[in-house]
Amino acid sequence: MKKKKKSPLDSLISPELITQFISESLELLDSIEKQFLEIEQGKSNHSELIESVFRAIHSLKGNAGFMEYQDIVDVCHKAETFLDQLRSDKKQIRKEQISLFLELIDVLRICMELLRNGHSPIITGKLDLLNRLESGFNVDSEISNTLSTDTQNSERSDDLKRSADYREYIRVDLRKIDRIMDLVGEIVISESMISQDPDLQEIASPTIEKSLRNHRKNIDELQELATSMRMVPLTGLFSKLQRLVRDISGRMNKQIDFQLSGGDHEVDRTVIEHISDPLIHLIRNAVDHGIEDSALRRKREKSLLGQISLSARRVGGEIWIELSDDGNGLDRDKILAQARKQKLEPENAKNLPDEAIWRLIFTPGFSTASTITDISGRGVGLDVVSKNIERLRGRIDIESQNGRGSTFTLKIPLTTAIIDGMLIRVHESIYAIPTQDIKQSVHVIDSEMVDLVGGQEIINLRGTLIPILRLERLHKLDGNGSDHSKQIAVIVENFGKEVGFLVHELIGQQQLVIKPMSSYIEKIDGVSGFSVLGNGDICLILDLGTMAKLVETTIRQLEQFPVEGSI
Q: Sign of the CA dihedral 31, 34, 36, 39?
């Protein structure tokens, strides 16, 4: 069997990293297959599915590039080109083309099996496969025959693989840990109900009181342990990114000093999974578009050694991950020109602050790159960055100077399983808003509300017009007996967008264990999950990203019209 050429960096590829690559790749392939079948059956929006498949192929290619599996990179790049043409021309994919992609998925799955058995994922008929992907028509030959397999070698490697499986650590399905968290939450609720039981409180027993205190102490320790089981250090991800910078800078003939710090900080495993792609995309852009070539750096009187730094630090209940470079920086005029070309330019753009302009780069398909490479420039990536961070209830801050460099700061909760929330009451329903997203709360009355076109309500808060959402209307809550004359507006900020919620009462802050909504429960707009309070009441947790999208058009209009006055 043909062996992969030895690389001086092979020592950085650990068995654990290969296992992680296989696991992530198989998940991506499963997703791609499912979406192609949905396209064929006409079940979902065609353009959205093509966009989703494009992102999955892009992620698979990036991961394979990091691992130096060039055959996988090549076929994924060709598939990307074909999909890019489909989405650009808004053409419908044909059945024979779907069949071709499904066969390609089978090929890549066999590659993963070869890797799992200790072999290189070599596609010996790669040229034929690339030609077929390029043409998109010839579907007669069997792709599966293009792979060279050696079942005897695979069988011999099984014994070696089994001997390596006995380790001090084991992989545990994250769903099992989530189940432990759920059970701990149930125990907390049960303990709270017992301690608040009126009959028990009438019994003056030091023994019972001591037992309850010990019980609570054990529960707290169990909850802390269950939470820690989900926590992993950033070191593994940072090491992967270090290799990525080295590979890309070498291919682009750029000298880059990549500095890392704070990798020993631990975050929830879900956080790692969701920030991996965003950081990969940001670093690719920093190397490709940020750091200038030697000639330009010399002209700007900069060191020929470009600087990129990635750091992490804990701030309260958040992890702040900061990526900085001393390269080109963001060009406001160039971004606006591209936005104009794609009909995305906001009104009165000249008067908008830089922060509002920078956020245009997170629009799907947005790219100012003049050249498309297999590294970046297709407009894929930065929209993934914003969406992934939103899912984590995080936010991104951008600082940039044209010609001097940029800094992207990802501010993310340490864990997605527990949040600090502000409990609010709307009529008889209880909601929670993540405390970190609340800017302020003010008392308002209906006479201070202003109707905009389409019936959207806004308030004038010290010269800024803020759209207001009424949860009672959105969720059709029964308001019998409630006082509508005076309510509280809770102002939140999500990705630079301010939205207000009208509530009847601020109950107080509380740490909440988040439970996902069950699949058999009808989706509730703007709700990301729920929590069970100590008294047994259900509390719905608001998804601020979704809520902001409900009034996105109004937000864009209001950005152009600051007014005088205040509440």
A: negative
Residue 197 DSSP label? -
d(CA 321, CA 330): 19
For residue 241, give the nearest of 266, 259, 253, 255 by alpha carbon: 259
Contacts of 514-520 with C-beta under 8 Å, sequence gap 24+, read 514/416, 514/417, 514/418, 514/419, 514/541, 515/182, 515/185
Model pLDDT, residue 6: 54
Pairing of strands 405-413, 395-401: antiparallel
All structural domains of the chain: 10-165 (1.20.120.160), 174-229 (1.10.287), 232-413 (3.30.565.10), 418-558 (2.40.50.180)
Q: Is the pLDDT at 43 greater than 70, yes or no?
A: no
| Contact of 322 with 311, CB cutoff 8 Å | yes
Q: Band of the pLDDT at 11, cuts 50, 70, 90?
A: low
- State the helix-helix crossing angle for 126-135 and 95-116, rounded to 10 degrees: 150
Give yes or no for a contact between 449 and 532, defined as CB atoms under 8 angstroms apart: no
Q: Name the token pair of 490.
A: 């809770």
d(CA 362, CA 380): 9
What is 328-372 written as a DSSP string? ----HHHHHHHHHHTT-PPTTGGGS-HHHHHGGGGSTT----SS-
Return d(Cα 448, Cα 437) in angstroms, integer: 24
For the stretch 174-229, pLDDT in tens is: 778 878 877 887 787 777 777 767 777 778 788 888 888 888 888 888 878 888 88
